[in-house]
Amino acid sequence: MAFQTRSPDDKSSHRLRPSFTRAMTQIYHEGVSPASSATTPPLPPPSSPSSLPHLRSLISPGHLITRSPLFKFYRGFSVTTIGMIPYAGTSFLAWDFLRAQFLSSTPNSRPTPIADLCFGALSGAIAQTVSYPFEVVRRRMQVGGLTKPDRWLRWDETVKAVWAARGWRGFFVGLSVGYLKIVPMTAVSFTVWQGGKRALGV
User: Fold this and answer.
1) Which of 33, 127, 129, 148 has the fewest CB atoms within 10 Å around its CB?
2) Distance between CA atoms of residues 157 and 148, nearest Å
3) Strand blocks (E) in 40-189
4) Domains along the chain with CATH numbers
């Protein structure tokens, strides 16, 4: 829905507003034609020497997309999963480091919500910077159905496309907008987490 835009040349575009159901329907029907599934060769018998290569092609992401359109909703899933590791790890590492460096370890010293907000905001900014290249690759793979609707974009070709377009800077395009979303979210999350711990006495 965020990617959908209206063409100024399309006079009927004002009648179709982006919606959840319309986006799901569009993704489900991306690039699938009856002819493509009809031309899929049958699986050879197990004794055939070409069985293994053909089996690999059948379980490939591109073939799964053709056979089951539901797999289209999982474009970029691997990048999302792997990108969670540096984001979550860096976020909590920065949070604990900042608290250890700037807060006294004496029993009478209690962190304030303002300090939690500041530490959480800085932790979110650091984590977003570290993990943002994964987000760029994920977005490219998710909208790959518009350019390559018949197959799954691979990691290597997506990374090469970003690098060829803008070099290393291409992996940080839109980072400032990411800060506007992630920094306040992380700050509030850590602050509410610490406030809940203080309220419960844990």
Assistant:
1) 33
2) 12
3) none
4) 75-200 (1.50.40.10)
